[in-house]
Amino acid sequence: MTGPLSPAERGALLGIAREAIRARLGLGPPPALPESGALAERRGAFVTLHRRGELRGCIGRFDPEGSLARTVAEMAVAAAFTDPRFPPLTSGEADDLDVHVSALGPRVPLPDPATLRVGAHGLVVKQGWHRGVLLPVVAVERGWDAPTFLKHACLKAGLRADAWTDPSTTLETFEAEEFGGPAPETP
């Protein structure tokens, strides 16, 4: 994984996510995307949206087509408007969102589930066309241990809860810098 993002870079990514959503709603211009530095590196990302404490959308991409900044902008729009679990975001909801970004490190095989580190690792479970992804923060928020994390990743993939023990199941971990929150107060 590349070095950690600075507080300014994290703030810039959160601003890019918010501006991309507002631009899609016709409430402002599209965000300016940096062409150099850490935000211009090719890196995957997830964007998670909450409204009034409830999940409102979450979409991500491990294999970016462009820079981290572009990926965050695209995933913010996707989370707001194309997450199949929710209706598209409305302009009345735009200022009431908590935006969280997960800047992803590379996926690595997990040959031994006993080495899964809750809170440090995200998890990808694959079997055939089934795939489930859970970010590191999910296990922490829910107080899961490693076997429970594995179980829920399998269930998210549409598999049996114990599918992680099946030799035909592929397990991968990844690290993520996770940050975000409500929109900053305007003076």
Describe the structure.
With 187 residues, the chain is α+β, with helices and mostly antiparallel strands. The protein has two domains: 7-104, Hypothetical protein ph0010, domain 1 (Glycoprotein, Type 4 Pilin, 2-Layer Sandwich), CATH 3.30.700; 108-174, Hypothetical protein ph0010, domain 2 (Dna Ligase, domain 1, 2-Layer Sandwich), CATH 3.30.1490.150. The protein is built from four helices and eight strands, in the order H-E-E-H-E-E-E-E-H-H-E-E. The protein has helices spanning 7-24, 68-81, 136-142, 146-156, and strands spanning 45-51, 54-61, 97-104, 108-109, 122-127, 130-134, 170-174, 176-182. The strands form two sheets. Strands 2-1-3-8 form a four-stranded antiparallel beta sheet, with helices on one face. A four-stranded antiparallel beta sheet has the order 4-7-5-6. A hairpin with a 2-residue loop joins strand 1 (45-51) and strand 2. Helix 1 crosses helix 2. The mean pLDDT is 93.
Properties at a glance:
single chain; 187 residues; alpha+beta; Glycoprotein, Type 4 Pilin; Dna Ligase, domain 1; four-stranded antiparallel sheet; 26% strand; globular
Number of helices: 4
Any guess at the CATH architecture of the largest domain?
2-Layer Sandwich
The largest beta-sheet arranges its strands as 2-1-3-8
Class inferred from helices and paired strands = alpha+beta
Task: Report the sheet with the most strands, covering strand number, pairing sense and barrel closure.
Answer: 4 strands, antiparallel
CATH topology of the largest domain: Glycoprotein, Type 4 Pilin
Question: Spans with pLDDT under 50 lasting ≥5 residues?
Answer: none
Per DSSP E runs of 2 or more residues, the count of β-strands stands at: 8
Shape annotation: globular
The helix content is 25-40%
Domains, number: 2
Please give the CATH class of the largest domain. Answer: Alpha Beta
Task: Name the helix and strand elements from N-terminus to C-terminus, one letter apiece.
Answer: HEEHEEEEHHEE
Q: State mean pLDDT (0 to 100 scale).
A: 93
What is the strand content? Answer: 25-35%
Separation, N- and C-terminal Cα atoms:
37 Å
Instruction: Provide the CATH superfamily of the largest domain.
Output: Hypothetical protein ph0010, domain 1
Radius of gyration: 17 Å
